[in-house]
Amino acid sequence: MKATVYVTIKENVLDPQGSAVQGALHSLGFAEVNNVRIGKYMELNLDTNDRAEAEERLKAMCEKLLANTVVEDFRFELEG
Amino acid sequence: MKATVYVTIKENVLDPQGSAVQGALHSLGFAEVNNVRIGKYMELNLDTNDRAEAEERLKAMCEKLLANTVVEDFRFELEG
């Protein structure tokens, strides 16, 4: 079963990486860009066919390792 | 106009960060996980209402700054 995990910085938390990328885009002439936020995108395979179990395990993985839930949000999608 | 950009490592390129995360997940007892690939997820706003122009500008941003097209693929979505 293929899983896609998205980890994003919470809305009220500063994103210095996003600010840096926005500054770089402005320097390159892309002045129309604002509010850049950078997150992580993960693809992983799970050796299981039980969707409910996969969701529960993925949630645990996100909470324990993949996301820092103090400052980050996560969501995931399961396929197949 | 809101844009979402996904940058992923090309399939035939090694992903050491993904391997490290996979190892950590295994150590934590998530043995069913394999083939972990880590990419970037970016959200940005564009001050334009012209979708065709936005697509062209986003493609240029990805090629110039957001992705290293030698080892990474990118794709993006536009909303609104």
From TrEMBL, chains A, B:
It is found in: Cytoplasm. It is an enzyme of class 6 (ligase). Keywords: ATP-binding, Cytoplasm, Ligase, Nucleotide-binding, Purine biosynthesis. It holds the Pfam family PurS. Its EC number is 6.3.5.3. SUPFAM superfamilies: PurS-like. InterPro entries: PurS (IPR003850), PurS-like_sf (IPR036604). Its main location: cytoplasm. It catalyses: N(2)-formyl-N(1)-(5-phospho-beta-D-ribosyl)glycinamide + L-glutamine + ATP + H2O = 2-formamido-N(1)-(5-O-phospho-beta-D-ribosyl)acetamidine + L-glutamate + ADP + phosphate + H(+). One of its GO terms (molecular function) is phosphoribosylformylglycinamidine synthase activity. It comes from the Bacteria. One of its GO terms (biological process) is 'de novo' IMP biosynthetic process. Pathway: Purine metabolism; IMP biosynthesis via de novo pathway; 5-amino-1-(5-phospho-D-ribosyl)imidazole from N(2)-formyl-N(1)-(5-phospho-D-ribosyl)glycinamide: step 1/2. One of its GO terms (cellular component) is cytoplasm. PANTHER family: PHOSPHORIBOSYLFORMYLGLYCINAMIDINE SYNTHASE SUBUNIT PURS. Part of the phosphoribosylformylglycinamidine synthase complex involved in the purines biosynthetic pathway. Catalyzes the ATP-dependent conversion of formylglycinamide ribonucleotide (FGAR) and glutamine to yield formylglycinamidine ribonucleotide (FGAM) and glutamate. The FGAM synthase complex is composed of three subunits. PurQ produces an ammonia molecule by converting glutamine to glutamate. PurL transfers the ammonia molecule to FGAR to form FGAM in an ATP-dependent manner. HAMAP family: PurS. NCBIfam families: phosphoribosylformylglycinamidine synthase subunit PurS, PRK05974.1. Belongs to the PurS family. This is Phosphoribosylformylglycinamidine synthase subunit PurS. It comes from Paenibacillus beijingensis. The gene is purS.
